[in-house]
Amino acid sequence: MKVQLRQVPWVWVAVSAVAITLFAVSSTLGATVYSSPVAHSLGLSALQVAGIVLVNRYPRWGILTATVATTLMVALSSTIPPEAPWPIPVTSVIAMVVTLGIGTTRGRWLTATVAGAVVAIASTSVATDVGATMPPGPIVANITVFLSLAAAAVLGGVVLRTAILTRGELREAREVSEVALARREIVEERTRIAREMHDVVAHGMSVIQVQAASAPYRYPDIGIEVAAEFDELAATARTALAEMRALLGVLRADDDAEQAPQPGLAELPDLVAGARSTLLDSVLIDNLPEDVRQRMSPVMGLTIYRVVQESLSNIVRHAPGTEAEVEINYESAPGQSGRLLIGIRNSKPSEVTTHEIDTSGHGIRGMQERVAALGGALSTAPTADGGFAVLAIIPLNLEATTA
C-alpha cells in the first residue's frame, strides 16, 4: 500500500510567506552588511527563495536550487563583516534549513543530506582561504550551527514523513476494513435471509409434493390422465425440492443453522412481551383484519417479525428503560390489494446515551433488504419527543398470497 503526501493549501501559504520575508531580509543584508553588489544580492536571494517555493512541489529541484544559491552566496562573500555571522549568512541558514526540512518530508532525505554537506564543505573552504585574519571561533560556531540545524531539519523531516505516512496507511487500512466489514455483514444477512427463505419454500414444496402424490389415493374416481398429471406434478416438486436443497446446502454447513420453523405474526405477542424485562413498557397494537392475516404469505409474516425483532433489539441496546410501541395496520385502496404499515417507536431515554442507532450490517440495512425484497420500503427517523421511529411499508399482493 503506497500513500502519497497531499499538497495542503496552508503549507503553500506558509512557504510563500517565509520566501517573501527571507527575500526582503537577505537582499538587504547582502547589499549592506556583507557588501555584495546589489545585483548579486537580489539575484542570489531570489534564487534562494525560489528553492523554498519549488521544494514543496519539486523537492529535488528545490533543494538543488537553494544549494546552488547558498553556495554562490558563500563563495562571493569575500568581505568579512565583524558584526555578522560568516561565512554563512543567517538568512541563508534559515533558507537551507527550511528547504532541507520540506524536501525531506517529500522523501528526498538523501538529497537533503548531500546538499547540507556541500554547503558546509564550501563554507569551510571559503573560510580557510579568505578568513585567515578572522578568529576561528566565530567561523567554527557558524558552520557548526548550520550543520546542527541542517541535521535537525533532515531528522525532523524523516520523523514527520514517517508519522504522516503511517497515519495515512492506518486511515486507508481502516477504510478498507470498514468496507470489508460492511460487505461481510451484508453477505451474512443475505445468507440468513436465504436460510429462512429455504425453510419457507421447502415447506411449501413439500406440501405440494405430498398432496400431488396422494391425490390419486384420496380421490380414486379421477381419470388415468389426471392421476398421471398428479404423479408428474409430484415428481417435478420432488426434483425442484432436491435441486433447491442441493443449491442452498452450503448455507447449512455451519452448526448454528436454524432448523426450527420460522416465526411469524403468531409469535409477535411473545416477542413484544419479552422486551418488557429491559424496557419500561412495550405495547403491541395489531389492527390487521383476520381475512388479511389468513391470506398473508409466510415470507411476509417472517419479514414483519424480523423487522419488529431488530427494532426492539436496537431499542434495548441503545435506549433501555424507555417505552416501546409496535403498531401494525392495514390500508386498503380501491382497485388495489392494499399495504401493510409496521411502525415501531420508542420514547425519549431517561438518560443521555452516547450510542447511535446501528445503520449497517444486521441492523437497519438488514431490515431494509428484507422489506425491499417484498417491494416495500423502510424508513427511520428521530421523533419530535426525542425518541426514535421505524416505519416499514409493504404492499400486500393478495393474488400471490391466495394462490
TrEMBL record:
Domain Signal transduction histidine kinase subgroup 3 dimerisation and phosphoacceptor: 189-255
Transmembrane segments: 12-32, 38-55, 62-80, 86-102, 109-127, 139-164
Enzyme class: transferase
UniProt keyword annotation of Transmembrane present: yes
EC nos: 2.7.13.3
Keyword check for Ligase: no
Keywords assigned by UniProt, alphabetized: ATP-binding, Kinase, Membrane, Nucleotide-binding, Phosphoprotein, Transferase, Transmembrane, Transmembrane helix, Two-component regulatory system
Gene Ontology MF, one: kinase activity
Reaction(s) catalysed by this chain's protein: ATP + protein L-histidine = ADP + protein N-phospho-L-histidine
PANTHER family assigned: NITRATE/NITRITE SENSOR PROTEIN NARX-RELATED (PTHR24421), NITRATE_NITRITE SENSOR PROTEIN NARQ (PTHR24421:SF10)
Protein name (record): histidine kinase
Lineage: Bacteria, Bacillati, Actinomycetota, Actinomycetes, Micrococcales
